[in-house]
Design a protein that fits this description.
By secondary structure, the protein is of the alpha+beta class. It has one domain: Translation Initiation Factor IF3. About 40% of the residues lie in helices and about 25% in strands. A hairpin with a 2-residue loop joins strand 4 and strand 5. The radius of gyration is 17 Å and the shape is elongated. It holds the Pfam family IF3_C.
């Protein structure tokens, strides 16, 4: 019994849950606000977090899905040197999101 709980504890300790940060933006984000969000994403990636960038559609904005995709691609181009890989752009209801994984995991960070 002890061995089973000990193994489960070790698996839980090594899991990546809680290492995901999410940045949510609207479709009509101002350029300065966009730059601030890029700075936050860079900070999170440099700290070793996985970052999920989500574009939220409000009301009838859902018909402009291509603008949401453009925003995520703009994020991807602006943080090009910081992340290792990213997931494909995914649609989920009124959200479009992509997940960015950092290049270097920070081993000194406690978490």
């Amino acid at each position: 019994m002890y061995c089973i709980t000990h193994v489960m504890f070790k698996k839980k300790k090594k899991s990546k849950i809680g290492k995901l940060k999410e940045i949510r933006i609207g479709l009509n984000i101002h350029n300065r606000d966009f730059l601030i969000k890029i700075k936050k994403v860079n900070d999170f990636l440099l700290q070793g977090y996985t970052v999920k960038v989500t574009v939220i559609f409000k009301g009838r904005e859902i018909i402009f899905k291509e603008k949401g995709v453009e925003l995520i691609l703009k994020f991807q181009n602006n943080i090009k040197g910081v992340f290792f890989k990213f997931s494909d752009i995914e649609f989920e209801g009124k959200f479009i999101y992509s997940i960015f994984i950092p290049k270097i995991k920070n081993e000194n960070k406690k978490g």
